[in-house]
Specification:
By secondary structure, the protein is α/β, with parallel strands linked by helices. It has three domains: 3-84 and 263-283, Rossmann fold (3-Layer(aba) Sandwich), CATH 3.40.50; 89-172 and 287-302, NadA-like (Rossmann fold); 175-253, 3-Layer(aba) Sandwich (Rossmann fold), CATH 3.40.50. It is 43% helix and 16% strand. The protein has helices at 3-17, 29-34, 41-50, 62-71, 94-103, 117-121, 132-138, 150-159, 180-189, 203-206, 215-224, 239-245, 268-277, 286-302; strands at residues 19-24, 37-39, 55-59, 76-78, 108-112, 125-127, 143-147, 164-167, 194-197, 211-212, 229-233, 250-253. Helix 1 (3-17) runs parallel beside helix 13 and helix 3 packs parallel to helix 4. Bound molecules: 1,3-dihydroxyacetonephosphate. The site of 1,3-dihydroxyacetonephosphate has 11 residues, from loops. It is an enzyme of class 2 (transferase). It catalyses: iminosuccinate + dihydroxyacetone phosphate = quinolinate + phosphate + 2 H2O + H(+). It is found in: Cytoplasm. Its main location: cytoplasm.
Amino acid sequence: MDIEKIKKEIEDLKKQKNAVIVAHNYQIDEIQEIADFVGDSFYLSKVCADRPEDVIVFCGVHFMAESAKILSPQKNVLLPEIDAGCPLADMITEEDVDSLREKYPDYSIVCYINSPAAVKAKSDVVCTSSNAVKIVKNFPNDKIIFLPDKNLGSFVKKQVPEKDIVLWEGFCITHYRIKKEDVLKAKNAHPEALLLVHPECRPEVVELADFVGSTKQIIDFATSSEKKEFIIGTEMGVLYTLKKKNPDKKFYILHPGMICPNMKKNTLESVRNALLEEKYVIDVEKDIMEGARKALLKMLELS
Ligand code: 13P
């Protein structure tokens, strides 16, 4: 495989098709290197809502490309690998939301962006890991159902104790791997390092952290900190930007298994093929589109 040749093909195809390439912080280094925009779920959803190009190649997982399509319905949104899904997003269905509505009629539903469009469509507002606390605080109801991530939900519950928050039982299989013992071991090995974790980690891990935030917030925190060593509790893709922006600092990944198998499915070849063959086209049913768009726009308004 001639990497430079593929990169050149991607550059040419991008111009030819009037396309923009966006990549999540968990993508492989080579994709982050060629992407026009790299960031967390919130940053990328704002970028996609505002871009002038006709085609968006979304290097991430399915729910992210789906959210880009919902925010830019007139654009052709492409996901390079169609089976790049999210097990957490699949832990809730629209039928589950119907049952929750029936059981808790006076509660509002705050839905993490890691969810299917049909679930967003039945929710009152969407949030990401970077704005979940703010959205729950600002939403004009003291009774909230937070879904589908129970760990992000627990984090929010602690930050917003004044509200009654019901949690769903979903979790991210990658972040769930980190246990309290891993943290104690890492802190022991690197006593000078600050611990920065994603709120999808278990509550007992989050409790020991010096900073809790989205992938972008973790990168920004480490970059602006005067400290030189950091233990990182999220998917290892963040190391690309952390090291690029901070060549003089040291980063230790909290657990060797912090690799999201779905995020790692996209490759330079699949990005090239996505542009060349205009695949895989992400579409959302019209009646789902309307409700999901409303919930996503509400997030942009409240955050
Ligand atoms: P971000 O909000 O940092 O993009 O996190 C998304 C995610 O899926 C974490 O596993």
